[in-house]
């Protein structure tokens, strides 16, 4: 059994609840435990993962959040930079699944957050579990 940390940016609570439900269900199906911590926004997720990874208390990580386009360029920054920083951590060998939704509107996010539809939270958890498997395989 491995211990996963779900790092969520709680910008849209109802969507995060669905994403986390999907992620937890996938992790439990894999026989793993999980904890959840909350950060202010998607831009803070990579830093929180880096800090938690340094603690040595977690085997893998699932990033959960929702970024919905507004009126300004900020969407590109939040969506792009959170993904870029998470990818950088992955390249450092930290098992992470990215479940941060980046959508044009809430309707798109709802379909992707819902575990009975596109279940992107569960998908991110599956990715994190697979990356941990690979880390162990290559160790
Ligand atoms: N607009 C969204 C944000 N913005 C906040 C940033 O992520 C960050 O917390 C802030 O710039 C302070 O550093 N975050 C989301 O997760 N989702 C959004 O739609
Ligand atoms: C993704 C965002 O940052 C967005 O929620 C912010 O909206 P706006 O660009 O209208 O300030």
TrEMBL record:
Keywords in alphabetical order: Riboflavin biosynthesis, Transferase
HAMAP family: Lumazine_synth
Record's function text: Catalyzes the formation of 6,7-dimethyl-8-ribityllumazine by condensation of 5-amino-6-(D-ribitylamino)uracil with 3,4-dihydroxy-2-butanone 4-phosphate. This is the penultimate step in the biosynthesis of riboflavin.
PANTHER family in the record: 6,7-DIMETHYL-8-RIBITYLLUMAZINE SYNTHASE, 6,7-DIMETHYL-8-RIBITYLLUMAZINE SYNTHASE DMRL SYNTHASE LUMAZINE SYNTHASE
Any one GO CC term of the record: cytosol
Catalytic reactions on record: (2S)-2-hydroxy-3-oxobutyl phosphate + 5-amino-6-(D-ribitylamino)uracil = 6,7-dimethyl-8-(1-D-ribityl)lumazine + phosphate + 2 H2O + H(+)
One Pfam family, short name: DMRL_synthase
Family: Belongs to the DMRL synthase family.
InterPro entries for the chain: LS, LS/RS, LS/RS_sf
Pathway(s) served: Cofactor biosynthesis; riboflavin biosynthesis; riboflavin from 2-hydroxy-3-oxobutyl phosphate and 5-amino-6-(D-ribitylamino)uracil: step 1/2
Source organism: Aurantiacibacter marinus
Residues bound to (2S)-2-hydroxy-3-oxobutyl phosphate: 71-72, 112
Highest taxon, organism lineage: Bacteria
GO MF, one example: 6,7-dimethyl-8-ribityllumazine synthase activity
The protein, known as: 6,7-dimethyl-8-ribityllumazine synthase
Keyword ATP-binding (UniProt): no
Active site residues according to the UniProt entry: 74 (proton donor)
Biological processes annotated in GO: riboflavin biosynthetic process
């Amino acid at each position: 059994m491995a211990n996963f940390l779900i790092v969520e940016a709680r910008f849209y609570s109802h969507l995060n609840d669905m994403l986390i439900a999907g992620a937890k269900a996938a992790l439990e199906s894999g026989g793993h435990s999980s904890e959840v911590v909350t950060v202010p926004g998607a831009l803070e997720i990579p830093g929180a993962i880096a800090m938690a990874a340094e603690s040595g208390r977690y085997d893998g990580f699932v990033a959960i959040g929702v970024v919905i386009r507004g009126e300004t360029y900020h969407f590109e920054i939040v969506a792009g930079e959170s993904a870029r920083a998470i990818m950088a951590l992955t390249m450092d060998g930290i098992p992470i699944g990215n479940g941060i939704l980046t959508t044009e509107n809430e309707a798109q996010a709802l379909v992707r957050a819902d575990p009975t539809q596109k279940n992107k939270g569960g998908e991110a958890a599956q990715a994190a579990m697979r990356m941990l498997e690979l880390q162990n395989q290559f160790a």
